[in-house]
Amino acid sequence: MSKPQDGLVSRFLNRPISRRITRFLLKFPIHPNAWTISIFVLPLIASVFLVRGDYVSVVIGAAIFQVFSILDGCDGEIARAKKLESKLGERLDYFCDFAASLLYVLALGLGLRRSSEGVVCAVLITANELLLRVGKSKSSVALSTLHESFYTRHRGMISHSGLLNLGDRFVWWLFQLTKRDMALAVFLILALLGLADWILHLWTIVAGASLVPSAIAATRSSIGAGDVVTREPRS
Q: Where residue 161 sits, what CATH number does that domain have?
């Protein structure tokens, strides 16, 4: 019930836990989309703690987001086990993950009295996702030519941005170290260490740096021809 796009934290921490939870959930008539929507309450609750801004509240908020990251894998596992995978489910899962990221940075920015940095980070995240979608829809590179551990929206960006000139292995590690599962685990550690400010700093830096190849890829792909329609697995 795992998938090749799993990051290191998902593979060795999140997925082993989520699989156990999924085996229990499969005993009940739970639809994967219903699970996706129901667990979105966790980012909402976490945001309430993050807005408070004190050490304990930030740790609790970061921990809840980590729990959300683990449980977020169950919807895809349920869908694959019950053969209920769908485009609607993929879009719903993507939207909830995206909205959760925005809630995280905006709430933490308010809590740390760095609301402007939180807004900037949210804007960078949104811009990057929009550019990735453009690169995905315009991609002319065959699916088999790129590493299977990358999501569809990332394959177009990698192929058109020139990142592969740095080497396949370098690109693989770059993505492994900046995936959402890795980020949320690192952010929890930073919160425990009392370095909550660095959560915003790192996320803003990574989002800003990611925007450069995404913009290059979107620009190059916009003048290319041909689309490849692929299916992006759920979490």
A: 1.20.120.1760
Spatial distance between the Cα atoms of 190 and 184, rounded to a whole number of angstroms: 10
Whole-angstrom Cα distance, residue 165 to residue 173?
A: 14
DSSP code at position 232? P
Tell me the per-residue pLDDT of 154-197, one tens digit each, with 9 for 90 and over: 666 776 667 767 777 777 777 788 888 999 999 999 999 999 99
Split into its structural domains, the chain has a count of: 1
Q: How far apart are CA 108 and CA 200, in angstroms?
A: 8
Q: Is residue 231 part of a domain?
A: no
pTM reported for the whole predicted model: 0.84
Alpha-carbon distance of 103 to 105, in angstroms, equals 6
For residue 55, is pLDDT > 90? Answer: yes
Q: Distance between CA atoms of 35 and 41, rounded to whole angstroms?
A: 11
